[in-house]
Amino acid sequence: MTTADDLKADKTLLPLFREKLEALTKGNTTFDLTEVETLASSDEAIGRYLIARNNNLGKSFTMAKATLKWRSKFKPCEIVVKDFPTAQAQGVIRLAGRTKDGCGILLTTAANWSSFAYSVDEYVRFVSFHIELCLAQNPGGKFFLIFDMKNMGYLTDMRKLRFLVRLLTIYFPEQLSKAVFVNCDWVFDKLFSICIRWVDKRNQERCIDFRDNAANFLLQHIDADQLTMDLGGTREEEWPLQPVE
After folding, report:
1. Number of Cβ atoms within 10 Å of the Cβ of 22
2. Strand 176-182 to strand 207-209: parallel, antiparallel, or no bridges (unpaired)?
3. What is the CATH number of domain 81-231?
4. Residue 222's closest CA among 143, 130, 117?
5. CA angle, 110 as apex, 127 and 71 as ends, to 5°?
6. Which of 8, 10, 63, 186 is most buried (most C-beta within 10 Å)?
């Protein structure tokens, strides 16, 4: 059966993509030069946009343009922990080791999230920082998300969830390995039924949810010493939060 990860980039489109990128950014100060050069220099980076839009050059380039505008505005590589103090203090996201195939793991604890306590811009900085750091520290080129939904709150800032979907599907295309939701309940079911409509079909295939018995699935992808005991692993200590510089 063909999956979302089977499609490869059409290499014949790479020079055409670069031509469009050069025409867009030449003399245009809207875009951060470093971000443009990083994208243009990497066949792999361009290929992710092509794959995400099924090798449709026009749609792929529109996606890349949106990403460059966003990255030029927020400069995610320059974000530090002190840029999102309220979000960090809640202890919601932690780097949690890596999968068997080298993807960095990000663990989200929904019970800790007070979503209306800070702005959307702070949320943007908070999530972007952790994804950038996760990718930088792990060789797999992708990230594996675990969302522990136990005791999640009833009230959720949907603006932040919309951005999260945009981040995962547009701004970091084809870098999501899996998004695994554990300890799900009826509150999650209602929320997920809304949010999944915002996700493209390729990434919908990467989303898996469990009410219980998630351990067997997680252990197929992650060594037991990387998983905390509450998730079915052998790690006794909680993964630490990123320190404030």
Report:
1. 11
2. parallel
3. 3.40.525.10
4. 143
5. 10
6. 63
Query: Exposed e or buried b for every residue in 30-65, given b needs 16+ CB within 10 A?
Result: ebbeebbeebeeeeebbbbbbbbbebebeebbebbb
Whole-angstrom Cα distance, residue 146 to residue 105? Answer: 7
Give the residue among 117, 119, 192, 125 at the shortest CA–CA distance from 159.
119
- Cα 60 to chain center, whole Å? 18
Query: Rounded CA gap, 103 and 161, in Å?
Result: 23
- What's the full length of the chain, in residues? 245
pTM listed for this prediction: 0.93
The tokens describing 167, both together, are 């981040």
How do the pLDDT tens digits run along the chain, 245 residues long? 556 677 899 999 999 999 999 999 888 888 988 888 888 878 998 999 999 999 999 999 999 999 999 999 999 989 999 999 999 999 999 999 999 999 999 999 999 999 999 999 999 999 999 999 999 988 778 999 999 999 988 789 999 999 999 999 999 999 999 999 999 998 899 989 999 999 999 999 999 999 988 999 999 999 999 999 999 999 999 999 998 76
Which residues, at least 6 apart from 95, have a Cβ–Cβ distance to it below 8 Å? 104, 105, 106, 107, 130, 133, 134, 137, 239, 242
DSSP state for residue 242 in the 8-state scheme: P
Is there a contact between 40 and 21 (Cβ–Cβ < 8 Å)? yes
